[in-house]
Amino acid sequence: MMVYLExxxxxxxxxxxNVVAGQxxxxxxxxxGRAYLAGISKQxxxxxxxTFKRRSAGATQSLLAEVQRSIRSVKRDGYCAVSWQRxxxxxxxxxxxxxxxxxxxxMSTQNVQPTARLSAEMGAYLLAFAKRCNEALAGx
Length: 140
What we know:
Elements: E1 2-3, E2 24-25, H1 31-39, H2 42-55, H3 61-77, E3 80-82, E4 88-95, E5 103-110, H4 116-137
Antiparallel strand pairs: 1-2, 3-4, 4-5
Helix pairs in contact: 1-3
């Protein structure tokens, strides 16, 4: 599971999906978890993927293939986009700073039809923010 350390809302109105600090979401289903998986070592990733297979009948070959696609997306584009809940698009990227644990950032929007264009637009904003976070954490 991934645990949210913080959640910032752009729009204060009540949403169908409210994420709060401490909330847990499934690693293999979410952009947040998949970005994290892309940021860790191959050995740790293999261990976690094996865990997903053992713990859940839902961890089908199809799901694991989606996870692998997301990891390739992070390696290629810097982020992955996932729509695991209907009408919600979430993009995420890992935060990797030498000597620190891997973290992940994500942003999401709801009531949308997920598209590659929207994913890329959100991904660009997220990557710019992640760059600032990386610089701050690295002391630059």
